[in-house]
Amino acid sequence: MNELSDATKKLILQYGLAQKQDSKQKTETIHVDEVAKRVAAFYEQIRTIVDWKEEHLMRRAAIIRKLKRKFFDLEMKNFAETGDVAESLVLELIRGGHFPNDKIEESKITDVQKIIDKYIFILKNNPENKAGKAGLNFYNWLIEVAACEIEETLAPAIKEMALIDYMFGQMKQKIKVSDKIFESGYLKKEDASIQIYIAICQALFKLDKPIISYNLIKYRYPGWQNADEQSILKVSQNAFNIWLRIEKDLANPLANKFYNICEKYDTPYLLMGDILSMNHAAETGKEILEPSILENLIKDAYSKRLSTLKSRIFRAAVYSTVSIFITKVLSLVLLEVLIERAIGGKINIILLGVDVLIPTLLMFALVITIKRPSQKNLNLVMMETMKIAYKKENTDTYEIKMNRKKGFIMKAVLSLIYVLSAFVTFGAIYWILNHFGFPISSIIIDIIFIALILFAGTAVAKRAQELTMEEDKEGFLSFLSDVFFLPGQGLGRWLSNKWKRYNAFAALFNALIDMPFSAFVEFLEKWRNFIKERKEEMR
User: Fold this and answer.
1) Measuring CA to CA, which residue among 347, 361, 328 is closest to residue 439?
2) In angstroms, what CA-CA distances link 433 with 178, 362, 455?
3) Contact, 40 vs 92, CB < 8 A?
């Protein structure tokens, strides 16, 4: 019988506490009207398509959207009245189906109000104003961080944070950074742990910038969630510099090296979390003392995660394609129609149909070509999970090294080859579409469609590697596809980032539909409550 590592014992204890928290009887929970909830939830499903992100990010995206609207209203009133913001926000989120009905304690409204007041205090006492692009980005970042804290208050991610800490504690010992990197100035020794922590957040749960920023604030300011006014004032005076520092941490040129290691070795930690979640953590902790039992539990957890991964990949492919179709394809097709009318050209319905069909078929092709992990991968996963679960004398190490320096001529040659491959890729698309009689406006828009789908498909394919630990063997065809597809993926990434800022459909929903619809749903609930009260009087 093997002995569990201290880190594993701590993880089991934390999972046990989380399970007790989940089963604890809650009193005085928040209730919203079911009819109003169904109406609001239907609208939020439509918003899911318009603002599509990965599933685990959708709830926070809704909090951010609604919180920005609330903050805008407060600013218009010069933050004079903030007392009822939390209640209306929480009710709106429950109606939209982002949190369960009759499950959240009423006391949480007070907690959320304290969070909102805290970030309003930071805004009001921050010496930097919102003038200019940097100031506006800082303002948006602060609201996004506030949304992360609100989400954590309403739905504490105890297990997820325990698993992050578990992997962080072990990876700090395993990842060694070359002295040459410190000497070069790319990274300071004290910042190596920060880069490991960021990489784990991204690899383990695919967390995005706002939640990583919030986690880094908690990491650097341990008492942040319960900070007193003096501590908040101190942070508010330096909030802009805190943001700049976090942005610098997230944009570190070596970040990908840390991420690639953590991405490769995250599977055992995910499976340990799954194993402890399957049954009562304390009982499971006793069972896994026996390696043969742990081996069977790993196989079961691996099999279940593999089957759910398939459905998640399919769902992500469908939603991302529909999202691109709604927010990008329709807007660009509309643009194409306007261009053709402006230049006096004829609108070909068949060509417009092909414009819409191309990205859909391309996404379908990308999804069906995703490779499944092999039996060898399962053996690797089992071996690595055993390593992290039990105490052992030797620790594996993964070194972060400097890239080999390239001379100016070599850099120029490689850049030229990349540019040429881009010309070949886009030139081939132009030639094919032009051969079939597509107008120039349609060809440009189709190239944009293809680039967006290539980037979205690549993101889905990377998500499918969640369980893969074996080295990916690349053949000549794989090399060729990288050479000619990378320029398209790069263009798609750039366009997607730009579209986040200038999403016309999202702006239209926010300005013309979101606020009036929220007011309508709130009125509907009040009307339903009024009707119930009148019915109770009929005796």
Assistant:
1) 347
2) 50, 15, 21
3) yes
